[in-house]
Amino acid sequence: MKLNAEYNLYLEHKKGWLKKRKGLFVLIKGKEIAGFYNSSNEAYQIGLKLFGNVSMLIHQILKKEPVIYIGRTKIDCLRMGTGDADRITASF
Predict the structure, then answer these.
(1) Long-range contacts: 32-41, Cβ < 8 Å, 24+?
(2) How far apart are the C-alpha atoms of 47 and 39, rounded to whole Å?
(3) Cys-Cys with 56: which of 29, 41, 82, 86 at CB 3.0–4.6 Å?
(4) 3 state DSSP class of 27
């Protein structure tokens, strides 16, 4: 389930989206920007209707990417689309 194309498209548009759509969730499938939504759940439900149960990118438009904490585990968000293998930085 690689979403490099979708994440690269997000990165291409991120600067512009931050001006008018900051905080919203964008839905991207392939090279299609399928809309902007107030919640990830709303974007997911629309994605299911449009594309079915397939891989798609739902990403909140934020200036700084969040860091996710799971219990005592810190995981930096995925950095995709760099041309390198996808990677996660984690500390336990």
Answers:
(1) 33/9, 36/61
(2) 12
(3) 29
(4) strand
Tell me, what's the pLDDT at 67? Answer: 75
- Within 10 A of 26 (CB to CB), how many other CB atoms are there? 22
Whole-angstrom CA distances from 45 to 3, 51, 59, 61, 89 are: 18, 10, 14, 18, 30
Backbone φ and ψ of 63, nearest 5°: -65, -45
Categorize the per-residue pLDDT at 73 as very low, low, confident or very high, splitting at 50, 70 and 90: low
Q: What are phi and psi of 61, to 5 degrees?
A: -85, 105
List, for residues 79-88, the tens digit of each pLDDT value.
444 444 444 4
72 has a pLDDT exceeding 50 = yes
pTM of the model: 0.73
